[in-house]
Amino acid sequence: MAEERAREAMLGGAMRWIPGGTFRMGAEGTYPEEAPVHTVSVSGFWMDECAVTNAEFAAFAAETGYLTVAERAPDAAAYPGADPALLVPGSSVFVPPHGPVDASDIASRWAYLPGACWRAPEGPGSGIAGRECEPVVHIAYEDAEAYAAWADKALPTEAEWEFAARGGLDGAAYCWGDEFAPDGIHMANTWQGSFPYQDLALDGFAGRAPVGAFPPNGYGLFDMAGNVWEWTADWYADRHPPEAEAPCCVPRDPRGAPQAMSYDRAQPAIRIPRKVIKGGSYLCAPNYCRRYRPAARHPQMIDTGTCHIGFRCVIREPNPEAAEEG
User: What is the reported pTM?
Assistant: First the structure.
């Protein structure tokens, strides 16, 4: 028992009971991948109050010796034609330009930095000392799965994640209501100013914020919008399924299935599968990416983590009396 309590102390994070229910998933009139709005039901589950932090991931790595995808050299056979100089351990880091750039030119603000990983989020010379309470980043999908398995948890489905993010406000635009900044108060860590070169940090943060720095939603969950994107267990499709035709057919706890066609219609197929990430990040701005909303979703290659992708976990416990709320 003492060993179990020590392990719980290392994990540290509290969980919240999400009661489950039926809700309208998705949104209309925003990004096309969020449509159509359809009715979904989920069973109750426990969810991490906050995204997994650097301190929590460090406990996992110390106990298991686990190396993330960013800490391993890529297999050259898996990336034919890749620049050999890039086939070294590393990850993608946001590097703000000095002025306006072509928004479609990803290379104008993103760089693959050898040595960048969760331990060195901005690349060599950076670190997590003093940033233990920030969400862990540079996490590929298999890294999130490995942590979840170690913690006896799981990654949420997209439906579970969105239901929890809404905090009981079915159909609201944001996790806290329909107004982005009620009474001028910023409710999440997002980008203010002209993306990608000018972050005014009006919300108090330029870059990632410690978890829990903004008010929780109606279920007591922090940072379900902004700060870092979060992995879900579902494969990405470029549209939601259509509305169920009868109440008896409302899907329960749906999980996505691998898609044969790419979300990008210019490609005939997906070579590297994508999972759904949710929540947006500190890099989401009104002039570029308004994805700090519960309905928002984005495809992410499963072999790739970046400086703005993290995760949180769930436990599917059917009886709220059987576990103690943190």
Answer: 0.88
For residue 251, how many other CB atoms are within 10 A of its CB?
A: 15
237-288 tens-digit pLDDT: 999 988 754 344 445 555 444 332 222 333 335 678 999 999 999 999 998 8
CATH number, domain of 54, equals 3.90.1580.10
d(CA 161, CA 156): 6
- Helix 54-64 / helix 141-150 crossing angle, nearest 10 deg: 80
47 vs 197: CA distance, rounded Å: 35
CA distances (Å), origin 128, targets 57, 63, 68, 118, 292: 11, 18, 16, 8, 25
| Number of domains making up the chain | 1
Range of the domain at 186: 2-322
Count other Cβ atoms within 10 Å, centred on residue 173: 16
26, exposed or middle or buried, with CB in 10 Å at 0-12, 13-18, 19+? buried
Name the residue type at position 261: M
Dihedral of CA atoms 23, 25, 28, 33 in degrees, nearest 10, equals: 180
Asked if 223 contacts 308 with a C-beta cutoff of 8 angstroms, the reply is no
Q: Are 170 and 176 in contact (CB under 8 A)?
A: no
